[in-house]
């Protein structure tokens, strides 16, 4: 009996534990917690299963204890489905959020670094998996501004690198990956900015910050450090994509909706079918790719030339060169591994500069016919073990 009581108390304490707090509030926002609906104030704590809604000309920013930051705009809603973070138990860290309405801005924190495969954010038409990143979105568009995200919508998974976006729809496959333009974020940013009148605007400085009851608790530790994420913790999303699916995202694609002009071809940014890859590995052939590099600290996109030889055994030849933080890095490709049970590949290289262990190029094949390779290159600089760049190569 004592054990049962202890487990129950542990469950209750976890369920209602402080997982974050309101760090910015403009206008009006409310939280539905159990049977209560309460108005939010600055510094109010949030808990698992909270359902947060904003009103007209309102927005709210939540900073979680791992320093993940989620902002929702006017007339938006956020459900904290499941959240857990303990610095002493990082393997159990997880974040599951749902934005069923409105616009949002997300910057991942420690969970995005230590356990990225356990971070997911659902919208009305898609589920987003992250790899240490920053992204924006609403019901119809997801934009990646830093890192990389994988979006699952209506059974189709799409890899979206920084500087790109996709459009998502109800009961349709998502659009191809599109390059971010100056006006891409206008609508989302407009929904995130309240544009309140000066006499009704509430911010950190002017809003009545007195804690409400019973939301605000004493002894809350504040982490005000700037949340700057990176792409260094990606996780094996190839094996975990199906874990992202939910009932909304596995709806049958409406066959009456007009398909792309060439109905026999899939966007080159859709993961290649593993069965196709398995068949190609057995054929005596050479696949040639060329591409460039990109990323936050890439100062020269450079070039990559690659030949993959298949049939009986796998081998690779080729070279690469790019600029990173003003320095030039180049190397020669030496071996390749294509497991065939998913869309992934792993290539080893030898650099012309001192490296931090094995230089690797890891990523996935995309398109019906392995048309594109997208991934990241790491371990190329022994003075910076966390250095990483992204690449894209087309057949």
UniProtKB/TrEMBL annotation:
Question: Coiled coil where?
Answer: none
- Low complexity: compositionally biased ranges: 194-213
Q: Which domain of life is it from?
A: Bacteria
Task: Tell me where in this chain the FecR protein domain is found.
Answer: 51-147
Q: Where is the composition biased (Polar residues)?
A: 221-235
Tell me which InterPro entries the record gives: FecR
* Disordered as annotated region, ranges: 194-235
What is the name of this protein?
Answer: FecR family protein
What is the source species? Aliarcobacter cryaerophilus
